[in-house]
Amino acid sequence: DTKMTEGGLNVTLTIRLLMHGKEVGSIIGKKGETVKKMREESGARINISEGSCPERIVTITGPTDAIFKAFSMIALKFEEDINASMTNSTVTSKPPVTLRLVVPASQCGSLIGKGGSKIKEIRESTGAQVQVAGDMLPNSTERAVTISGTPDAIIQCVKQICVVMLESPPKGATIPYRPKPASAPIIFAGGQAFTIQGQYAIPHPDLTKLHQLAMQHPPFTPLGQTTPGFPGLDATTPTSSHELTIPNDVSGPIV
């Protein structure tokens, strides 16, 4: 979307970022205070995808100046976190700030340029490291573009990437990347099933019932056989089966 302003052409953009849980927590802040401040001071809309996933999508939408202000605040917050983590650390070299953009694969060719010329130009002019993933993110037509460097280098890099994306709009339909929830580990103890959530083991009645049935009854008889094909079971061994309804959210971990 574009509109004319006194300063010339002002463009409204939507940029998607891929973040780990710890990074998202840093952006949200205590009681959501950090992200609220970022929204108010930048003027950009900042939305964070829902769900208990290891990765989350952070969507930033607004005029170009608001986008760059939001990116600046995020990069500076990450640098602040890095400085804090180094306070009592023996590490001598300071790691760079790193952000991961999610970009439609159809635009990555323009971002890389012929023979890698465009991405080389962006690296040299901004001082940031830029890497475009060779493979698309799972079940999507998007790729991750990783940017590393100082907060200032990252902002300059994002500005140049935005120009490329505006000059080369995505071709065809884009299937956005949606991070999947992590499957909670399952343990069996004392005849009960538990799912691990954080530091706690939560009883799971459906899986407990399934576990108890599995322990009480022999395996199902293979098709075409009158008795199970397992040693120690004779022809007189009775067989039985039980129907168990398993919720959708449980079937994945069981499989």
UniProtKB/TrEMBL annotation:
Keyword RNA-binding belongs to the record: yes
Pfam families cross-referenced by the UniProt entry: KH_1
Molecular function (Gene Ontology), one example: RNA binding
CDD domains found in the cross-reference section: KH-I_PCBP3_rpt2
Name of this chain's protein: Poly(RC)-binding protein 3
Alphabetical keyword list: Repeat, RNA-binding
PANTHER family recorded: KH DOMAIN CONTAINING RNA BINDING PROTEIN
Domain K Homology residue range list: 11-79, 95-166
